[in-house]
Amino acid sequence: MTEKLEQRHGENLYPVKFAAQFGDHELKLDVPEGIWNPTPHGVHLAHMLLDLDFSGENVLELGAGCGIHSILIARRGAARMTLTEIDAAICDNARHNVEKHEVRIPTDYVVADWMHVEGGPFDALVTNPPFAKSGKRYRRYFIDTLILDAHKLVRPGGRLVFVQSSMADIPRSLALMAENGMDVAIVGETDGPFRQYYFEDPTYMREMAAIPGSYSVRDGKHYERLIVFEARLPG
Ligand SMILES: C[S@@+](CC[C@H](N)C(=O)[O-])C[C@H]1O[C@@H](n2cnc3c(N)ncnc32)[C@H](O)[C@@H]1O
């Protein structure tokens, strides 16, 4: 492998043809170099979306990446979607995959920095927020701002749906959602094997070791817990 491609693997931005079955839905996604390659987090969220009903809803997805979740949100009945990403090339790739899967509902593709999105209020906000590769000194930045600012984008009584790892401190998110008056349900939980790039970042491994219950080791293999939350905003 070339040095550049090795680096892209480490950043999880390598090109791949991603094919997977989610319930009755067969997804075949084109993920070029530079676009986030779906991980166990995104795959778990995709499975859990099948248990949620978005019928008639106006849904916002933040950091849509290759569009894996947007396609399923549409298949679960959304009436309208807004997808955001941090740059235009990623938005274009999401559009490519959404259109390839024959999503027909009105869909807006918006370049926006996290919660700084025009429009709304939305009925639901769905996301797999950056964490391990958040690029922030304060790694939980995207999770905390998501919870704190959800009311600016989601209507009263609407839903925030997101996946997070035990590595990102689940009790802390639960406390923050409760402090913000949200009524939280766990849609589903699973174990995810560590990504190779965790081991390549000693700072990350040290930070994770400081969070009680952040991971487990069984038969020499490291696992994190992956949880999908459905948080109902106060009405
Ligand atoms: C964990 S990935 C999830 C991608 C996709 N939803 C998935 O699950 O495969 C987080 C995504 O957020 C995007 N992102 C990073 N910083 C962002 C920001 N400030 N505003 C919007 N999106 C951002 C990244 O480009 C990336 O696609």
Explain what you see.
This protein has 235 residues and is α/β, with parallel strands linked by helices. It has a single domain, classed as Vaccinia Virus protein VP39 (Rossmann fold). 31% of the residues lie in helices and 31% in strands. Strands 3, 4, 5, 6, 7, 8, 9 and 10 form an 8-stranded mixed beta sheet that branches. Helix 2 runs parallel beside helix 3 (68-75). The longest helix is centred in the middle third of the chain and has 13 residues, at 88-100. The protein binds S-adenosylmethionine. Residues 36, 38, 42, 62-66, 68-69, 84-86, 90, 113-114, 128, 130 line the site of S-adenosylmethionine.
Q: What name does CATH use for the topology?
A: Rossmann fold
Low-confidence stretches: none
Helix residue percentage: 25-40%
Q: Main sheet?
A: 8 strands, mixed
Tally of distinct domains: 1
Radius of gyration: 17 Å
List the bound ligands: S-adenosylmethionine
Task: Find the count of extended strands (DSSP E, 2+ residues).
Answer: 10
Mean pLDDT: 95
The proportion of residues in beta strands is: 25-35%
Query: How far is it from the N-terminal to the C-terminal residue, by CA?
Result: 53 Å
Query: What is the architecture at the second tier of CATH?
Result: 3-Layer(aba) Sandwich
Helix-and-strand structural type: alpha/beta
- What does the overall shape look like? globular
